[in-house]
Structure formats: structure tokens, C-alpha cells
Design brief:
The protein contains three helices and 13 strands. The protein is mainly beta and 271 residues long. The N terminus is likely disordered.
Amino acid sequence: MIWFVAFLSCIGLTCAEVPFNYNVHNQRVIGGHDATPNTWKWQASLQYDSYNDGSFYHICGGSIVDSFHIMTAAHCILSMDASLYRVVVGEYNLYEYDGSEQFVRVETIVVHPGWTGDLGNGNDIALLKLANPVYDNGYVAIANLPYPEQMLPHGFTCYITGWGLMDYSGGVPAVLQVAPIAVVEHSVCSQPNWWGSLALRRMVCAGGDGVTSGCQGDSGGPLSCFIDGAWRVHGVVSYGPAGMCNQESKPTVFTRVSYFQDWMYSVIQSL
């Protein structure tokens, strides 16, 4: 969930804070539309119980990387107490029980050791180990990942999915949203009138057309790209501009998965 400024280190960016009012803060992808059911099977909803009373609400997206592990953004981790989280996979409508969902508690949280809380420094990635494995019920799938260090070409069309803002005025979504979004290569995204020095090579920029973007509620979710014959999760939603999310020359920024695969595999093997 890309949230408005919550820490001094995030001035000018959007970052995480606890959405205490669920009906206000659960929103949709900007420029998107209702996803086709049972399509983005690796999408997960990370949910949080802020009062530890069994009342969970969506705070971020995530991707299934194997039956026991979910990839999300480090800034989505509001507490290191794993008992306060659950993951829902096979989800489509957040407000209805469709019979496709699996609700799984989180057992262990591992945040990248380079994460400082400053989105501009990058390393905005975390892995969650689940208490029980997710299983193939026809509505979930393990995400394919890119090749190590793989980069996407400028203008390549990927897709952002999530339950984040559809427009900055708010609105409460129920259904998973999807939108096509074009990759902006590092040489463009790092220009001064774009993200400048905040755009690092271990990030992927996409959007910036003033129409389509991620926004509050989308953080941690996948940037899915059909390349090399398969859908692959190339990014984890990290940050965007404060204020209106769909600003020209301020694309949505994703943690680049291909940069972090060695770390991910070492964590998975150690848990």
C-alpha cells in the first residue's frame, strides 16, 4: 500500500502507515479495471490485525513465490510480530467469501537487511514464511520469477494488480483491479525531471503517463510481465509521488525482483 508521508525520511514519497479506518483506506489501482476472476493467481492480500482482536484488514499486496513464502514490500511490515498478520490467496472480492480463498497465518517475517525505512535507498522487499502451505485449489499459482539480473526494455507493457486507489478521491473497492503499465528505463526514470537520484538500478519504474499508476493499497503487490514465454513477477510495488498518484513523469517505482533473487533464495533455504 503506497501511503502518504509517514516518516521524515519519506518526504516527497509515499510510504506505509497503519490504515485504522478500513472503509477509508482500502482503495484501488488508478487507471485500471476489474480483473478477470482466477487470472492473477499469484496475487496475495497481506492483512493486518492492528488491535490483536482477530479483525484483519487488507494493507498490502504480495506474490506467492512458493507454497510457504510470500514476497511483499519491506515498508508493508508495520510490526515484526508475525501473529498480527495473515495472508489471503485465491482472493478476488475482499468483501465476499467466494470459496476460492485460503487464509493462512504468517509464521516468520524477514525484511531485507539493507532496508532502512527510507524508500529512496531501496531494498524495499520482505519475505513472509507461512504457518501452513498454500495448496493448488485451482485459484492459486506460484509466481514465475525473472532471470537473475534481467532488465526490461523501455516501453515494455507489464500489468499492475491490487486493491489500491482507483482515483485519489477515494472509494472502497471490492474486486481486484488490473492495469497495463509501460516500463520506463533507468536512463529516463533517473533524469532530474523524473525521479532523479531516487531511481536506482535495483528498481523498476513504470507508468508516469499521468493516467495509470499504483497507489495506496497496492504496495507489495506484483508487477507482472509476459516475457520469455511466461508471466513473470518483475517488480514489487514500492513508492510513488505524494499527493496524486498518477502524475506525469513520476512513475510508480517497484523493487526489481531480478536484483534480489540470490537474497530471496538464501532466506528461503534458511527458514
